[in-house]
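User: Could you walk me through two proteins back to back? I'd like the raw sequence and the structure tokens for each, with a short line separating them so I can tell where one ends and the next begins.

Assistant: Of course. Protein one, sequence then structure:
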Amino acid sequence: MVNPLSVLYRDDYLLIVHKPAGLLVHRSPIDKHETEFALQYARALNDGQHVYPVHRLDRPTSGILVFARDSDTARTLGMAMMAGEVAKTYLAMVRGWPPEHGEIDYPLREEPEDRRLKGVEQPVRDAVSHYRTLATTEIPVEIEKYPTSRYAVVELCPKTGRKHQLRRHMKHINHPIIGDANHGRGRHNRYFAERFGQGRLMLAATGMAFRHPASGEPLTISVPPEESFLEVLSIFPGFDVQVHFEK
């Protein structure tokens, strides 16, 4: 069996991998019948030994996923994430042209994973995200009521860690992420799924920076999006994502 995870960094304390879109991190009550998980593939990369996921990455989101190789490291890094000491960067493709940069300060109601709790009112938590527009394009295709359709590539940096935060925040400012079945625009999602022969969420975790939980030294991990993401970005003439990552 081919392991879908690729190793980005490994030492005695950490195993950092790239997760492809479509792979669950671990078992979830939402997908009870799923049999493949990033957690089991990470164990295989760890000589069969247990690993500890220290943060979430939604099933349709690709990119950087961090595992600790022992419980103490998991606890230390988990506390750093809760304290806002871990910087995360994402790349996304959205509908429309957002401003050059901005902050989204919009509290979000918690979304329980257990469907039995959907009728129970959940608490509202503070949520803040920053964005920066990297590229824009306009294609001569009528998808909604206009003869052309506009899209942008944005860099997203969540300052808090709420469930589906970036997807919900981009919907809030009317620039939903392409391929988002729950918070996006169906007509645009269908157009790109048909045009490229595959429908995927255009959101990728591309950067993470924090102090190493054992040494305290700064550690920065960066990786371009996977090929299925880059293929859709071909609608942005002149935008080279590799150049963006080399800056």
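----
Protein two, same layout:
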Amino acid sequence: MSLSDIAYSVLDLAHARIDASYGDAYAGMVASARHADALGYQRYWMAEHHSMDGIGSSATSVLIGHIAGATERIRVGAGGIMLPNHAPIMVAEHFGTLHELYPGRIDLGVGRAPGSDGATMRALRRDMKSGVDDFPEQLAELQYFLGDACSGQNVMAVPGQGSHVPVWLLGSSLYSAQLAAQRGLPFAFASHFAPRLMLEALHVYRAGFQPSEVLDKPYAAIGVPVAAAQTDEQAEHLFTTAQQSILALLRGEHLRLRPPVKSMEGLWNPVEAQHIRDFHQIAVVGSPSTVKRKLTQLAKDTGADEFIFAGSFFEPQDRLTSLQIVAEQMRGSV
């Protein structure tokens, strides 16, 4: 499989710098989305997280509308909405509204994780007793409210009903792969932070796939951590910002972006270092030639239909440069 046959997209968390505001993060997000739009990226997704100091993407559908309004071609959506946190009809209404505002450009990826801790789940009024056991029913309800109205249907998502906004299933487990296969939905695996089960999940999804009105064959995307620069050394230096973020997550510290450092030695202990390396197992970090080599190998290993790139950069220009380098390698141009 050639890289030029694989779609390439972006995942954004509206990650704020340690010395800046969320407004600054949103401005950087718009600049990145416009750059990605011009570079041929397929979609620009936002992920729902709550009560995480430094991650500004909690009001996911609001940001999706903001990005869609600032771009022209690129698809914009959720990667994803944590469905158990919401009533399916309200999700359908939000994304039905986005569809009316930006026809043919909105995606709705949904997941079953909370995107938060237990205390935050309670603040979200999530039913702790039901947990995620009713996720298949919630997914069916969401699809019902996005589909054509049924005869005698009394409760409808307005707007939303009949919009057929594309629904993706997201996950980091075999459960999500199995459900996506059963429902015939596109599947995005969260290998940008949980790569251990990636290959097994892709196999489960493809082997169990049942054609549907949505898809006649499997379509799998994978999350890929990335930091591209003009040299390997520069890229590895920039990548320490992402490594510091995961270290902060492990330690329960704030997640605001920290500037890159010369070395992570002295900042992490051996156990933390191994955990973070496992977290970033499939990370693509390096110069243009290194990025191309690693992406080519990743395509061969996974057979993915799409790469969804996630990167954390302290300086906005470094992120724009990385987006451009990656796009050039994916297109096979220089």
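Residues 240 and 261 are 6 Å apart (CA to CA).

Let me know if you want the two compared in more detail.
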